[in-house]
């Protein structure tokens, strides 16, 4: 199976390296110093599940260098989506499937504006990763599970078979990916808003009584928004979110908190900002998410000079 990873960062780098290690024919679309480092010195993944070193990496900043593939895995930040999606053309044939692992609820819609609708498949993962330095990605924690739509699609079955052979990757096709994406959106918007605004890993937040009230408030606002949007979350969801948060090593922060710390642009408009916008639409107060959105808006495009 020919696979192209769009973005070779925390998610694209980790998943692509694992698929290549398992025998997949993987190419990476990357850019800048990370692209140069991968071309010159390969791609390294540091993970408690087992490190990976891909010495010989097929990487380019131009999809035309790679040509049509069977599967595209889309993993750039949401603020880079339009540009990256607009450049997918040379990778996509009539048979290509494009699986997105981006956070939030907007990714599938963005991709469908650029490529045929039925080629796009939603997906979500709770694994946590980041680029430590050019050419090196760290798996910071979180189980390397990926949930994808496309249940019954032969290509997704082939991908699942490849993941079954891989170390540190588990892929499960599901019948209702929309529900999975909403669950992740609610869980992550609270986790990213909380760990970014409070500048802390999840452990100390859950241990501090006031900080915990705030992150749980973000979670509960998200649950109310999901119900109003026609995606009610199952009974007991609150408890499952807290269990999921507690399963991360205490120091783990969201990818947005990591980007904020590094002065990079952040995805707040698609997370707390999206909750704020939906709150206005449905007439539901979201004081927590609105505060996160407004406070971090100043940093949305990267470090304030
Ligand atoms: N990291 C995590 O733990 C998780 C992230 N996600 C989601 O996955 C998505 C990807 O996040 P993440 O892996 O952290 O992102 P990263 O920033 O780590 O990696 C994205 C990479 O793609 C590059 N890139 C962006 N646009 C292009 C382009 N047009 N051509 C070539 N390269 C490009 C970026 O370059 P540059 O550095 O120059 O910007 C960067 O190297 C996001 O939506 C995120 O919310 C989901 C689950 C967990
Ligand atoms: C799964 C989680 C919470 C990993 O940290 C994430 O999606 C993110 O940080 O963006």
Number of discrete helical segments: 12
Total domain modules: 2
In the CATH classification, which architecture of the largest domain applies? Answer: 3-Layer(aba) Sandwich
Helices and strands, in N-to-C order? EHEHEEEEHEHEEEEHEHHHHHHH
Assembly of the depicted chains: single chain
CATH topology-level name of the largest domain: Rossmann fold
Give the percentage of residues in beta strands: 15-25%
Class based on secondary structure composition and strand pairing: alpha/beta
User: What is the arithmetic mean of pLDDT?
Assistant: 97
Using only CA atoms, what is the Rg? 19 Å
Low-confidence stretches: none
Number of strands: 12
Q: Report the CATH superfamily of the largest domain.
A: NAD(P)-binding Rossmann-like Domain
GO molecular function: 2-dehydropantoate 2-reductase activity
InterPro entries: 6-PGluconate_DH-like_C_sf, 6PGD_dom2, ApbA, KPA_reductase, KPR-Related, KPR_N, NAD(P)-bd_dom_sf
Organism: Mesorhizobium abyssinicae
Catalytic activity: (R)-pantoate + NADP(+) = 2-dehydropantoate + NADPH + H(+)
Task: Name the features.
305 residues; binds ketopantoate; Rossmann fold; 2 domains; 12 strands; 12 helices; alpha/beta; four-stranded mixed β-sheet; N-(1-d-carboxylethyl)-l-norvaline Dehydrogenase, domain 2; binds NADPH dihydro-nicotinamide-adenine-dinucleotide phosphate
């Amino acid at each position: 199976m020919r696979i192209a990873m769009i973005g070779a960062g925390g998610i694209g780098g980790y998943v692509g390296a694992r698929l290549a290690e398992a025998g997949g024919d993987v190419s990476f679309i990357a850019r800048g110093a990370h692209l140069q480092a991968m071309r010159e010195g390969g791609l390294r993944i540091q993970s408690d599940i087992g490190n990976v070193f891909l010495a010989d990496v097929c990487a380019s900043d131009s999809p035309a260098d790679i040509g049509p593939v069977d599967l595209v895995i889309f993993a750039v930040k949401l603020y880079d989506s339009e540009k990256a999606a607009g450049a997918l053309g040379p990778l996509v044939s009539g048979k290509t499937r494009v699986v997105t692992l981006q956070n939030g609820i907007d990714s599938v819609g963005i991709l469908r504006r650029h490529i045929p609708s039925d080629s796009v498949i939603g997906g979500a993962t709770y694994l946590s990763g980041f680029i430590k330095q050019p050419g090196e990605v760290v798996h910071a924690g979180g189980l390397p599970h990926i949930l994808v739509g496309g249940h019954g699609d032969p290509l997704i079955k082939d991908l699942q078979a490849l993941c079954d052979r891989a170390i540190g990757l588990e892929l499960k096709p599901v019948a209702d990916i929309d529900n999975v994406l909403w669950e992740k959106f609610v869980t992550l918007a609270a986790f990213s808003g909380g760990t970014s605004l409070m500048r802390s890993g999840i452990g100390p937040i859950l241990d501090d009584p006031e900080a915990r009230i705030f992150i749980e408030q973000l979670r509960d606002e998200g649950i109310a928004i999901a119900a109003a949007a026609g995606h009610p979350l199952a009974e007991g969801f609150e408890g499952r979110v807290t269990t999921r948060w507690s399963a991360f090593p205490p120091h783990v922060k969201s990818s947005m908190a990591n980007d904020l710390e590094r002065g990079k642009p952040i995805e707040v408009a698609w997370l707390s900002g999206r909750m704020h916008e939906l709150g206005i639409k449905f007439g539901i107060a979201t004081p927590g998410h609105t505060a996160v959105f407004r406070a971090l808006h100043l940093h949305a495009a990267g470090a304030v000079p």
